[in-house]
Amino acid sequence: MTLQPFWETKTLSEMTSDEWESLCDRCGRCCLHKLEDEDTDEVYYTSVACRLLDTDSCQCRDYPNRKQIVSDCTVLTLKDVKNFHWLPETCAYRLISEEKPLSSWHPLVSGSNTSVHTAGISVKGWVHSEVDVNEEDLEDFIIPHIMVR
Q: Which Pfam families match (predicted)?
């Protein structure tokens, strides 16, 4: 008898804290600055990352204190599930909330923490830190192929 993985049998609200945290594939996309079109509600991702994002590992440099350091840092919680539409289509939190399977490159499925980078899903190697970009220039850094509604 093979046990099904927790992400296939539990809803987000049924997961433990450790299970919830393990859903993050460490792609770094949620740490990118985003611009929203107020007329269409479309969200455009930029190639500009939060100053706390380590652009090589795609992990936060100070995850436990991120909200205190970056006041507008998004902390994903259950109360925000209805707003997960802004997350990338590849994001496990969004996929689970939409009752869709995780991708084969997701570390929980592949068993490898580097599969997200190998698959080209992470922001590793192609993003700019916000410390190097003027906020008024963010439109110049919109990534045309990443847009969500």
A: CxxCxxCC
Q: What is the pTM of this model?
A: 0.87
* CB of 28 closer than 8 Å to CB of 124: yes
Handedness of CA 88, 22, 113, 141 (dihedral sign): positive
Composition of the chain by helix, strand, coil, percent to 5 = 40, 15, 45
What mean pLDDT, rounded, does the chain reach? 91
Residue 72: its H or E element: none
**Cβ pair 106, 92 in contact under 8 A:** yes
Q: Cα(96)–Cα(112) distance, rounded to whole angstroms? A: 20
Q: E strands, 22-127, where?
A: 32-36, 43-49, 53-54, 59-60
- Beta-bridge partner residues of 48: 128
